[in-house]
Amino acid sequence: MQHVVQDRLGRYWVGQSDEITLFAANGRFLATIGREGQGPLEFLRAHPFHADSANWVHVLDTGNMRLSVIREDLSLFEDTAIPAGYISDIVAEPGTGSYVIQSWIPSAERLGFPLHRLSGGTIVSSFGVSPVVDSDRLPDQGLLNDFAAQRELALSVGGNVVSAHIWDYIVEFWSEDGSRIGRLSGSPLDDGLRGEPGPWSINNPPWHGVRDIWVDRYDRLWVLLVYRRPDWEDRVIEVVRPNGSVGLDFPEGLSAVYRSRIEIVDPFACSTIASGWFEEGSLGKFVRGVPFGDTASVTRGSYGPLGDPFVDVWNVSLGR
Questions:
Q1: How does pLDDT run across 235-258, given as a tens digit for each residue?
Q2: What are 27-81's pLDDT values in tens digits?
Q3: Distances (CA, A) of 10 to 7, 41, 57, 193
């Protein structure tokens, strides 16, 4: 429920695994789109990520490994199969019919978790092979290293692809031909407590990371980060699993362990314009949709008094 698109009618398209729930701009329920399955308008893991100029919404289904385009009237326009693999993120390149994904695809020539440009469901180019972050510290364990190299994606106003490592605050800018044209680093995210990717424990706690990125109409880069709270240990219980492994339970939910920070960066000057903390739980993702606005919207999962799941949408603005 963290992946939300807002279309040009102001409606929110909320991905909920095997369906998409549609809400009006004021939060009023409008419709449910799809159901569980593998046929047309059936989903296993629906992830809306783009609303195009025709107000059609593009949906990634990582369960069925396909892209679906849904018209404004909620009818299906097309389904497109995509190569199987673990997909970290995806963006649509407006007006081109192409997408850029970061995906681990099990073939020798595509190891390293690169970025891929898709057209018609076919990979037409691969670029930006991601070296393992902290390669001296992380063991050589294949997908474990690929996990550390996952990135969040966005598009600049000029159409360049922007990628940000989730494990370390490293942002890179890629031209249309796949050449890297810029790189910047934010504050280090490793505070000395972070261990390796894997089961969390008191000695290997939930790690700080980049949750999402977004670019506004002024080409400013918005970076959403999550950090453990100073009192995070008071919000978890360490337990021994049936298999003997030690792990963490989260009585208040995982979100209660984190607080969030948004930084707005001028990528040309490599400077931070503004930043601020969000103390009311962990924020989810930037709301996608009509590109390059003046303000950002960001999601947060919450629960009602009866335990019903909610998606809160927060609008964040920067005064000029």
A1: 999 998 888 888 899 988 888 899
A2: 999 999 999 999 999 999 999 999 998 999 999 999 999 999 999 999 999 999 9
A3: 5, 22, 12, 42
- Evaluate the CA torsion angle 115, 189, 225, 155 in order and state its sign: negative
Asked if 8 and 55 touch (Cβ cutoff 8 Å), the reply is: yes
SS (H, E, C) the chain: CCCEEECCCCCEEEEEECEEEEECCCCCEEEEECEECCCCCEECCEEEEEECCCCCEEEEECCCCEEEEECCCCCEEEEEECCCCEEEEEEEECCCCEEEEEEECCCHHHCCCCEEEEECCEEEEEECCCCCCCCCCCCCCCHHHHHHCCEEEEECCCCCEEEEECCCCEEEEECCCCCEEEEEECCCCCCCCCCCCCCCCCCCCCCCEEEEEEECCCCCEEEEEEEECCCHHHHCEEEECCCCCEEEECCCCHHHHEEEEEEEEECCCCEEEEEEEECCCCCCCECEECCCCCCEEEEEEEECCCCCEEEEEEEECCCC
Reading the block at residue 184, the tokens are 């910047």
Q: How many CB atoms lie within 10 A of CB 265?
A: 21
pTM of the model: 0.90
Contact of 273 with 265, CB cutoff 8 Å? yes
Taking the C-alpha atoms of residue 105 and residue 84, their distance in angstroms, rounded to an integer, is 7
Average pLDDT of adjacent 10-residue blocks, the chain of 320 residues: 89 94 95 95 95 94 95 96 88 89 69 84 86 44 60 92 92 92 89 71 87 92 94 92 86 88 92 90 86 78 81 80
CA 91, 295, 293, 33 torsion-angle sign:
positive
- Looking up tokens 């001028």 gives 266
Quote the CA–CA distance of 231 and 258 in Å, as a whole number.
Answer: 10
